[in-house]
């Protein structure tokens, strides 16, 4: 199943209680899990539930979620009469009628235009009931997104393994070249020492010891061994059923560290050229690893 790409898209739909929920999820690369949720204002209280559910399925990436519902999701409106205020209004109207000796009776029509006599109160939606409709649509969108991320992840895995094989081939070329390079370095140093001995009275044994020491500094066996270990680790991570993007990225930093050390220890034109090729391959690996969850 793993590794998974951080790029994917999924769509899910579900109907419940005369409403149809549609969820679309789009994911792209990001260092951490960054969620952006768009849903109807009337059910904005469900945002945290949506985020928690996504967090159980996705570990990294920028996640954009768009939620649409068709059907009546408006809050219920309840009308309420302020009877105490109505009585006071009525007494005032009655007082006006009597004081001014007005004809006619006070009717309901006279009362309806008075402020705050009848008020509207919205009753909030039952979010638990709304979640019953939204949850399956979100789950289907996540399933579809997961499938796409897994397919893309398999393609990334194959590409990474091929590039890793190229890198391993370069390491093997250097490994086979090192003995000859070290021997060549010894011969060069020996020739220089012999020339110095002809011109200056120096201790031959001491010079031979120094020459051997300088030649051994060109030995990169430890770096080669560590690179082989890193290559094996990288391949192992690609087979794990868990998020490995951050670990692969860290491992590539170790790749680069060993290559830099190797190149600095061997002062050789051919090896320097191979070192450049190895750094190019590391950069290509890094570009692809940025897409791995």
Order of helical and strand elements: EEEHEEHHEHHHHH
Which structural category fits the helices and strands? alpha+beta
Oligomer: single chain
The averaged pLDDT comes out at: 84
Number of strands: 6
Q: What order do the strands of the largest sheet run in, or round the barrel if closed?
A: 1-2-4-3
The amount of helix comes to 55-70%
Could you say which overall geometry the principal axes of the C-alpha atoms support? rod-shaped
pLDDT < 50 stretches: none
Beta-strand residue fraction? 15-25%
Summarize the structure in short.
The chain is α+β, with helices and mostly antiparallel strands and 293 residues long. It is 60% helix and 16% strand.
Care to describe what's here?
Helices cover 60% and strands 16% of the residues. α1 packs across α4 and α7 runs antiparallel to α8. The model has no long low-confidence stretch (mean pLDDT 84). It folds into three domains: 92 residues, Ribosomal Protein S5, domain 2, CATH 3.30.230; 48 residues, no CATH class; 139 residues, no CATH class. It is of the alpha+beta class. The protein starts with 7 loop residues before the first strand and ends with a helix. The strands form two sheets. It has a four-stranded mixed β-sheet. α1 links the parallel β3 and β4.
């Amino acid at each position: 199943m793993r590794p998974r790409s951080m790029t994917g898209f999924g769509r899910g739909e579900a109907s419940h209680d005369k409403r149809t929920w549609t969820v679309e999820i789009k994911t792209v690369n990001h260092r951490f899990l960054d969620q952006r949720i768009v849903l109807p204002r009337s059910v904005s209280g469900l945002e945290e539930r949506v985020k928690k559910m996504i967090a159980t399925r996705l570990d990294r990436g920028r996640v954009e979620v768009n939620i649409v519902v068709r059907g009546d999701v408006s809050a219920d409106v309840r009308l309420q009469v302020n009877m105490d205020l109505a009585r006071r209004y009525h007494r005032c109207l009655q007082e006006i009628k009597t004081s001014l000796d007005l004809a006619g009776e006070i009717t309901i029509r006279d009362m309806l235009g008075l402020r705050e006599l009848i008020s509207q109160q919205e009753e909030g939606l039952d979010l638990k009931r709304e979640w019953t409709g939204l949850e399956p649509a979100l789950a289907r969108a996540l399933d579809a997104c997961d499938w796409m991320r897994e397919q893309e992840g398999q393609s990334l895995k194959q590409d990474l393994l091929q590039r890793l094989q190229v890198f391993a081939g370069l390491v093997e070329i250097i490994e086979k070249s090192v003995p000859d390079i070290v021997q060549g370095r010894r011969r060069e140093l020996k020739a220089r020492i012999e020339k110095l001995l002809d011109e200056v009275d120096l201790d031959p044994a001491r010079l031979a010891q120094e020459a051997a020491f300088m030649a051994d500094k060109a030995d990169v066996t430890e770096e080669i061994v560590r690179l082989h270990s890193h290559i094996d680790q990288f391949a192992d991570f690609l087979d794990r059923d868990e998020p490995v993007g951050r670990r692969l990225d860290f491992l590539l930093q170790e790749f680069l560290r060993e290559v830099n050390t190797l190149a600095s220890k061997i002062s050789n034109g051919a090896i320097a050229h191979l070192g450049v090729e190895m750094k190019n391959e590391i950069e290509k690996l890094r570009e692809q690893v940025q897409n791995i969850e």
